[in-house]
């Protein structure tokens, strides 16, 4: 084939590819038309003719937000850290450190990345774009950019109306926490550990730094500059932590890829840490980076958790539950978590769903979805062992609307408390009708539960007031 003919053939092939693709990515100074158009965070102008139908997300926050937006059905793949919501953990997984042909073969019409991936694996990203795949890089550098970021995700997936609703709820819920804690006279002083290495913290304008302020706390390291330009991490060090020992009311350690660290006991046993006020008073907490440092709608939960750590009695006020109406199991879970000020439970590893574990599998109740208003309370109560769950042939169940029985309440109180068997035993005339005879006998002998004409009445339903009274006896 002559040179001119080769050139014409190349031009024609390129034109066919351009027409076949619904996405056009060009330099931001060029001009083109598309129903969806914006400049992504790598400076590439994106033109998409229609919302994407087959999406692969290589960043967990993108994945979470897409499910919140109602675009979960468009997801055909994720990254190994994409484990929330639970159904995302069962997507086909892809890695930007592997062969791009794996993604190309999946035939997505949109691949979502972030600038970190572009910097780390530029050849991988280029290969996807050369294959005609629409690659969009997004990441909000600050809390103030969150809305714009969400609106771009919504535009890419045709979920703009849902985005507007969620963003309104998001800011309303954050405002509610801020307004509630604003009335507190004695503001809590917080040290936020971002990494165990060198005991680094977060900058004041980071997502986590902003969360502390929204929750009504005072970040003792608020004036620290970033460790390097554009970073959300600031240097602090052990010496300065100990210098501020008397002024740290609450010590919070972030857990995740940046800080795998140790457990609460390991933090408390660090040399010199026994002088820190928060350690002496048992106010050291762990929080997932997914809740406070990741740009997702779960950030609201992170702010709420920080406020619970700082102002437990205020945030876990359950006066609204004081009623003699029959209680249901979701209320039992909520009251246990609030009464005991339990941090909400989250799996600590991204390999959680690919690893064997005993007991209930987080997020896989058939009758309690991750969108349920009581989800966090139910999962926390169940994973603490305080509330029973049911392993049925067709899946795991919680039965949130079932009434709470007296024996069920007794089992929860026994798990939460520290009770010893007594030498003198009360006579319980209906003890044989109890499933947990030892628990019932121990609690009655310890005066935690009374009898009605000698009967325990294990199947009698209880009210929220009875639950609160029993928990108070702990």
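-> sequence recovered:
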């Amino acid at each position: 084939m002559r040179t001119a003919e080769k050139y014409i053939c190349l031009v024609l092939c390129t034109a066919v590819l351009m027409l076949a693709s619904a996405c056009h990515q060009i330099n931001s100074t060029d001009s083109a038309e598309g129903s969806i158009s914006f400049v992504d965070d790598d400076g590439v102008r994106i033109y998409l003719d229609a919302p994407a139908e087959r999406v692969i997300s290589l960043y967990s926050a993108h994945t979470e937000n897409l499910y919140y937006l109602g675009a979960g059905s468009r997801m055909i793949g994720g990254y190994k850290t994409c484990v929330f919501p639970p159904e995302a953990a069962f997507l086909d997984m892809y890695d930007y450190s592997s062969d791009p042909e794996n993604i190309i073969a999946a035939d997505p019409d949109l691949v979502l990345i972030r600038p970190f991936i572009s910097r780390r694996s530029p050849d991988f990203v280029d290969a996807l774009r050369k294959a005609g795949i629409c690659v969009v890089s997004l990441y909000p550098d600050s809390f103030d950019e969150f809305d714009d970021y969400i609106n771009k995700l919504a535009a890419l997936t045709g979920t703009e109306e849902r985005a507007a609703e969620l963003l309104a709820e998001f800011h309303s819920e954050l405002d509610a926490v801020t307004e509630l804690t604003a009335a507190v006279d004695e503001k809590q002083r917080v040290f936020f550990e971002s990494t165990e290495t060198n005991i680094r913290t977060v900058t004041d304008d980071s997502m986590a730094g902003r969360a502390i302020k929204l929750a009504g706390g005072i970040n003792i390291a608020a004036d620290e500059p970033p460790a390097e330009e554009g970073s959300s991490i600031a240097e602090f060090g052990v010496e300065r932590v100990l210098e501020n020992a008397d002024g740290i009311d609450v010590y919070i350690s972030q857990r995740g890829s940046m800080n795998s660290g140790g457990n609460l006991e390991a933090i408390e046993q660090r040399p010199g840490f026994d002088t820190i006020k928060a350690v002496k008073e048992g106010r050291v907490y762990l929080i997932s980076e997914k809740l406070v440092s990741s740009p997702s709608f779960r950030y609201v939960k992170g702010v709420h958790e920080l406020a619970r750590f700082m102002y437990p009695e205020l945030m876990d006020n359950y006066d609204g539950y004081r009623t003699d109406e029959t209680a249901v199991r979701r209320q039992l879970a909520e009251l246990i978590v609030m009464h005991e000020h339990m941090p909400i439970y989250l799996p600590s590893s991204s390999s959680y769903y690919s690893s064997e574990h005993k007991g209930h599998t987080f997020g896989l109740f058939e009758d309690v979805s991750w969108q349920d208003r009581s989800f966090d309370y139910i999962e926390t109560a169940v994973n603490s062992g305080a509330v029973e769950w049911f392993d049925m042939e067709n899946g795991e169940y919680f039965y949130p609307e079932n009434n709470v029985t007296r024996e069920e309440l007794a089992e929860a109180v026994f798990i939460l408390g520290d009770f010893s068997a007594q030498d003198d035993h009360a006579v319980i005339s209906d003890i044989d009708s109890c499933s947990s005879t030892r628990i019932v006998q121990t609690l009655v002998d310890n005066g935690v539960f009374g009898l009605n004409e000698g009967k325990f009445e294990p199947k009698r339903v209880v009210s929220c007031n009875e639950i609160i009274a029993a928990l108070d006896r702990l």
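The domain at 187-310 is CATH 3.40.50.1980 (Rossmann fold).
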